[in-house]
């Protein structure tokens, strides 16, 4: 069982074209602490009801992994490099999390509305799984990071995932894309996230949430 590990919140603050990000990488144990002790306490007017799963596509996993040793581009810079594309598209924020094979990275703070899917921006967190899963394979390790991150988010809002409050990006009526790719049936994610919540918060001991449901 993953036990929370305390961590200082000292993000790299990035700004471009009206987009303001707070980027920091967390291990699963650190992320659980972060959501409980920091993010949940900062929530105010905005009330998300669930999670939308995406894949980055560009960069794909191969590019993301190779950029650091070959070109000296770390994860913070990789996220920063996406900001002009978002700004040029008229975005005022970004997805909330980027999850690679090693860590969970924050972008738009969890307590602010993000930009990731038009129909879902107002009421959903956006999680970007790093990779192009129309042609790459989601590893068990990366999948497990996503499950833990999503479990922590659902615990923040005090309820479990359902087919109605866990979305794939391709469910967006105007998406016209296969995102998040071939990551398995949504029913698997519903069950896996629910099981992880039971492991992390036995007896429905969810941390104080926003909307008990």
- Taken together, the total number of domains comes to 1
Query: What is the third-level CATH name, the topology?
Result: Lysozyme-like
How far the N terminus sits from the C terminus, by CA atoms, comes to 25 Å
The ordered string of helix (H) and strand (E) elements is: EEEHEHHEEEHEH
Largest β-sheet summary: 6 strands, mixed
Estimated structural class: alpha/beta
Please state roughly what percent of the residues sit in beta strands, choosing from under 5%, 5-15%, 15-25%, 25-35%, 35-45% or over 45%: 15-25%
Low-confidence blocks of residues: 208-213
Number of helical segments with 4 or more residues: 5
Helix content: 25-40%
Can you give the mean pLDDT? 92
Number of strands: 8
Looking at CATH, the homologous superfamily is Peptidoglycan recognition protein-like
Provide the CATH architecture: 3-Layer(aba) Sandwich
Q: Kindly provide the name of the CATH class.
A: Alpha Beta
Strand order of the largest sheet: 3-6-5-7-4-8
Radius of gyration: 16 Å
Shape summary: globular
């Amino acid at each position: 069982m993953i036990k929370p590990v305390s961590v200082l919140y000292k993000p790299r603050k990035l700004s471009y074209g009206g987009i303001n990000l707070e980027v920091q990488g967390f291990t699963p144990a650190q992320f659980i602490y972060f959501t409980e002790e920091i993010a949940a306490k900062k929530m105010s007017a905005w009330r998300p009801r669930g999670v939308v799963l995406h894949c980055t596509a560009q960069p794909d996993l191969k590019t993301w992994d190779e950029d650091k040793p070959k070109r000296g581009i770390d994860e913070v810079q990789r996220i920063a490099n996406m900001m002009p594309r978002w700004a040029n598209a008229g975005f005022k924020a970004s997805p909330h999390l980027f999850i690679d094979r090693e860590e969970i990275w924050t972008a738009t703070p969890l307590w602010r509305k993000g930009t990731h899917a038009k129909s879902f921006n107002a009421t959903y967190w956006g999680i970007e799984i790093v990779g192009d899963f129309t042609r790459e394979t989601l590893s068990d390790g990366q999948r497990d990071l996503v499950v833990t991150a999503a479990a922590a988010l659902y615990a923040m809002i005090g309820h479990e995932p359902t087919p109605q409050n866990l979305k794939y990006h391709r469910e967006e009526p105007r998406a016209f894309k296969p995102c998040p790719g071939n990551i398995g049936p949504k029913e698997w994610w519903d069950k896996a996230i629910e099981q992880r919540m039971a492991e992390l918060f036995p007896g429905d001991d969810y941390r104080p949430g926003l909307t008990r449901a």
